[in-house]
From TrEMBL:
Name recorded for this polypeptide: DUF4212 domain-containing protein
Transmembrane parts of this sequence: 15-36, 48-71
Keyword Chaperone: no
Species of provenance: Flavobacterium ardleyense
Presence of keyword Transmembrane helix: yes
Key words, A-Z: Membrane, Transmembrane, Transmembrane helix
NCBIfam families xrefs: Na_symport_sm
Source organism, top-level taxon: Bacteria
Domain Sodium symporter small subunit: 8-83
InterPro entries reported in the protein's UniProt record: Na_symporter_ssu
Amino acid sequence: MSDQKHATAYWKENVRYLLILLSIWFLCSYGAGIIFVDQLDTIKMGGFPLGFWFAQQGSMFIFVILIFVYVRLMNKLDKKYGFDKD
């Protein structure tokens, strides 16, 4: 595979990961914190309605978790395409 095709395939896969992870974050922060808040408020977590929890804390926790997931995915992707060597 030529270097250009190799780099293009790498970036296509990287962008796909980004879109998936950002979609998950959007659904958790905007969806759970704003759109579905009334349905989630029927569930309590730590004494607070779950919708409130997602709006105040949950989306931040999920974002941090997604950062670690992205790092892991990128490490695997770097090894797959041979970009892990310094």
